[in-house]
Structures are given as structure tokens and as C-alpha cells.
Amino acid sequence: MSDYAHPDVLVTTDWVKQNLKTPGVKLVEIDVDAKQYDVGHVPGSIGFNWQLQLQDQTTRDILTKEDFEKLMSGAGIAATDTVVVFGDNNNWFAAYGFWLMKYFGHEDVRMMNGGRVKWLIEDDKPLTTDATPVAPTTYKVAQVNPQLRAKVPQVLEVASTGGYNLVDVRSPDEFTGKVIAPPGMSETAQRGGHIPGAKSIPWSRTVNPDGTFKTTDELRKLYFEDAGLIESKGTICYCRIGERSSHSWFVLKYLLGQEDCKNYDGSWTEYGNLVGVPIVKGA
To answer: What is the CA radius of gyration of the chain?
Structure first.
């Protein structure tokens, strides 16, 4: 992992095992299927429910600053803590949690390489169903980083001018408009297809079978050689609801070092429901 642009943001499962009782290290599991945490979790970790805790429950939006502060305070996390996120589905929503924490300025956030799946397949890694005791803190956001987020006006400008790389991280069938959402997913849109100018680079091509990230050389080939992204441009990633795009955002910004990289968390369930915006069908 040492050849990544920011290798410090990734930790191994062994590192997590060695730091289960280290003061100031907080482990946060964020799963697509939030019930997985209760089935068995890393000792000392806490679980966040992405539907109920990482989104505003009235407006379709991310948490307010105040609600983020309440979330972190209630989880016993201090602003000076090292937070390690991980989860199922190759860290989909763990990446979303990482992005959200960085948006709200938490300095030391890391991801467990391989996520829940890698932890489960390793015989020496413990699991528990015991509740993790929490001592609430008084968490305060020091700064917000809106430059990490793309919104509709900028996306429409990019679709028109090509000022940024635009990366659609969904499956090829979602990109072409053959399907609007993966099977079994409830969040959908009125139209299928993709944003003009977007390149199809599915998030799944960035990981190995065990969920760990591919090498720098493999990732650079995927994005810059094969897909033809222009390295000197900034990049906007999108998917369906913002979690898979957070995963690709993490790869581009922290593993490949693209400084100006944004997550369009509104993604296709916003764009594909807008009236009058340009849409492309097919490859």
C-alpha cells in the first residue's frame, strides 16, 4: 500500500486487530445491510445505519452540521480521534462515511482495506455480539469542506463544457440505460442512461476478489490509460445514490492523488428525475 498517494488513509485488518484497545482509535462499521453488525462485529466497534443516521430524515440531503456533531458525540468520537471505517460490499457505505467525515472536516479518517469480508475470511480475527460501551463526547465541527461535493448546477455545467472528468461508476447496464437500478434496489429514477460526457468506469474494477484495492499501477491503467481520463483535470464521480461514487472518489483522491475530486452524492436518483436535463442512452 506504500505506493499510493496517501497510504496513511488505509489500514490492514492486522493493524485493526493490533489496535482494538488503543485509546483514541474508534472503529465504525457501515454496512449496506445494517443488520450485519448485530450478527457479529469487530470488538469495540460501533455501527452506523446509513439510511437512518447518515442522511437527513426530512430533506433529501446529507446531515446538517449540527446532526453530524450529534452523531459523532453520541458515538463517543472526539475530533482528535483516529476513526477507522469499514463495512460490507467492499466498503461501499464505509467510503460514503469516510467522505461525509472528510466533508465535515474530521482530520484523521482511515479505511480498513478489504472491509468486513476480509475480516470474516481471516481465522485469527475476532467477532462479538456484545454491545460496545460508549462514553459520549462533545464533538464540534471545526470546518466544512464543500469542495468535496458536486451539486446539480456544476454537473450540468460540466456536461456542457467538459471542464471536469465525469465518471459514472455504476454497472455498464445502468450506464447504457438498459436498467435504471440494480435488482432489488428501491431507489430509482424516471429515466435511464448517463450524463453527457461521462465515462463508464465501474467501481468494482478497482478492487481485488478479497475486497482490497488494486495496485497503483493497475488503478492508473484503469482510469488514465484505458478509460482516458485527463489527469490534469478535476474529476466528479457519480452513481445512483452516492455510495459507490464515494468508493471511486476515495480511490481517485486518496490512492491516486487527484486533488480536485468531488462526489456527486445526488447521483442518478437526482439527475435521472430532473425535468429537461440532457441524458445519453447507450454506450
So the answer is: 18
Asked whether residue 111 falls in the same domain as residue 232, the answer is: no
pTM of this structure: 0.96
My answer on whether 15 and 133 are in the same domain is: yes
122-146 pLDDT tens trace:
999 999 999 999 999 999 999 999 9
Q: Which residues are catalytic?
A: 239
Q: For residue 97, give its domain range.
A: 7-146
CA-to-CA distance for 137 and 208, rounded, in angstroms? Answer: 37
Task: Identify each DSSP E strand in 109-222 by its residue range.
Answer: 109-112, 165-168, 199-200
Q: Round to the nearest angstrom and report the end-to-end CA distance of the chain.
A: 34
What burial letters (b/e) apply to 1-18, b meaning 16+ CB within 10 Å?
eeebeeeebbbebeebee
